[in-house]
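Our working data are protein records whose layout never changes between entries. Getting from the letters to the tokens is the skill we practise here. To make this concrete, we reproduce a full record directly below:
***
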Amino acid sequence: MRNGKRLLSILIAAVFVFALVPVQTVLAEHRPGDICPICGEAIEFSYEDEFQHEYACVWVNLPAHSCYYYGFEDHFGGKATCTSAPVCEACGFTYGSPLGHDWILDTEQGDGGWEWADDGSSATVYLKCQRDDCSETAGFNDSSPQKESMESEWKYTATVTQDGKTFTGTHTIQKPKLTITAIDQNLTYNGEFQGPGDTAYDDAEEIAEWVAVEGLQGTDRLAGIVMDGEGKDVGPYTLTPSAAEIRDSKNERVNDNYNIIYVEGTLNINPGTYTITDGANGTWTRGSGTDYSLTVKRTEDDASCFSYYEKTLIDGEETTVSAEPGSTVVTVPAGTVEALGAGDHFVKVQFVDGKAETILTVEEPTPSPSPSESPEPSPSPSAEPSPSPSAEPSPSPSAEPSPSPSAEPSPSPSPEPTVSPSPEPSVSPPPSPAPSVSPAPSVSPAPSQKPTSPQTGDDRNPRLWMWLMAASLTGLAALWLLGRRHAVWRR
């Protein structure tokens, strides 16, 4: 019993002693060489884990050494670099992690720090560390950039992540241009809608009729196209190609390999060609009482010519006419033409899609002579011969030559009359013994019936010329008589 009480007393005293002993478990940074503040012994360190170490003073056994100074604290000290972790100043343990590089783009390399394969299949990014005590540079590769098809180019995106930083670069490659141009179409008006409308074509020959293609690569081909555009009335309309299908030799769709450019074309609905085949540039006489007709033919589909007829205009004014098929036959009533008046008049036959034009000349009638006012025939020269001097015998010549009368020329008749005058008698020259006068030529007796003289167009009176001839002959006779009397006086 007494022993038990003694043991209990010892335990209580021990608890009391231990309660009085200052046991420190502080997180102060203890370094090698530090002295225990209780017992003055050196403090030692031991590894605990990657985050903390244990420190304690040197002691051998509890009864011999009453100091119980120990504890745990975090590793501390040391300097981390880009590639190495710090070392604990107390226990020498390497703890934590390297700092890692603080990368930035090295824009002095590549294209702004990036270098791409020609086909965009890979990319390399060039980086450099911006820490003061590091001059590290490096290149990092992305061997599978993301590929995205844009309208006119391929867009590649490369992504590289290093030391917690992500770098992204893009690269574009222009697609080859493929130009699809709508071929202009020329159609003739037919009263209906014409053109492709909104039609897809996949036949090679049909495609070639509608579009021209430029820029296909290798064995690629245009396998399909959609054409849109139509019109009814005369005029231009837009032809628009779209939705092309490009196939390669394996018949795989390769549209994404091209920058497809569509060029619009024009659908022309042209008017028909109308020609006046009968009645063009016609002439109409006032008072004739006949209708004026003309025939118009259509070069394209003449059978439908009349179905496109609209109206007829004369001098710009719509005119009431009759029109009927057979090409197109237009008849203008006589009364309508009569009212136009003399002169040239512009005639236009109007059709839905064209026209035919001509000139109609209206003439005044030619006046005809009345029976009571027949023109007088022009007087014709008389066919009767002019009187000639009698053929008297010449007097016998005297011994002395008589002076010959002066041979004055007789006035010659004008060459205008159609009937020539009788020739004048000639006078003998002086050497002859006696002047002799040539007898006048004989004149055939006039027929019993006066002949009709030919109409020569000379309407002058022939009586004047007959009087002139008679006067000439009379003068010659007087000269002859004077010469004869002079010869008698000299004898």
